[in-house]
User: Fold Glutaryl-CoA dehydrogenase from Curtobacterium luteum.
Amino acid sequence: MSTTAASTPLLESDFYGFQTGLTDRERDSLGRLRAYLEAEVRPIADEYWARAEFPKQVIAPLAELGMYGPGVPLVRQFENSAVYRGWAALELGRVDASVATFIGVQSGLAMNSIAVAGSEEQQQEWLPRMARGELIGAFGLTEPLSGSDSARGLRTTARREGDEWVLDGEKRWIGNATFADVVVIWAKDVADEQVKGFLVTTDTPGFTATKIEDKIALRGVQNADITMRGVRVPESRRLQRANSFRATAEVLRLTRTEVAWQAIGIAVGAYEAALDYARTRIQFGKPIAAHQMVQDLLVKSLANITASIALCTQASAMQDAGVGGDEHSAMAKAFATAKMRETVGWCREVQGGNGIVLEKGVARFFSDAEAIYSYEGTREVNTLIVGRAITGQAAFV
Assistant:
């Protein structure tokens, strides 16, 4: 399916026309992504969400659209920008946050871990196949007893024995893990107490991944509990440039802004559904869009979206310029997810009681927002990252 920049209309929710700042090639690419999502993903999103299954048939087409690892020089299709990658995350989020999260794990977390912390040989071995969707990756950081305190609180251990490492421990909430081929496992080296990264193939003896059931958000994402008992990994699969938590933090810095863009996409998806409903729902003899209080909810929602796009556009532009810090991505994530949560609530309110059923379009976004609000750093932790930057004082504990 082909398109041109001129035939790729701006989203109605891009009220100030920020998307016009993309290059023609980036808008062409974004138009192809939008066309695919509307034709192939939107019609099945509610069904797969309700069944708590992931639509694996989208993996190959999304690879052809260049969605895996677009920021990694070894595999990217063209010299795209972080701003473009943000808009791609928004487009994904406005249709299906579960698919957006799958890509965030595959491309942002797993592939970026190899790009940031892997050797040149490891990058050549893994990244091209992951970019083609031939190998699926996951990112194993969070643990049952360690979330926000992962920098210090990891309990998964790595012990070197000759040319191998032995991993023992547990991970939780690991997206893609039930069908991944390789998981980036972050573990504490018992010798020096430093966090190191390992490429663990999921067929390794002692490795098990069990799907987490009964979620109320991101039901399409296949989150898993991982158990490792005496998992042996060769030294060649230790990420060669990951010698402390700094490498992990660098990966998270690169991905947090894109999570913020995903959050905007969820807000946009809910807003579009609420606006469509308001235009067609008749009460008191006219569309509810003609009622003042409904317009107030819609305008407040659009203002939240607009402010979030403005903030994230600048955060991504700073990343492109090489001047974006942890505090900038942290503020983007904290702000955009908080405004998303507020917005999906207002959009559900526009739909009244109908807002809690999938067929009216807001309910899935309303539920998924709760997961995006918390993952890749809670609002509180991201706030403290910014607080440390502006005061010079760490207040994490």
Observations:
- The CA atoms of residues 93 and 265 lie 4 Å apart.
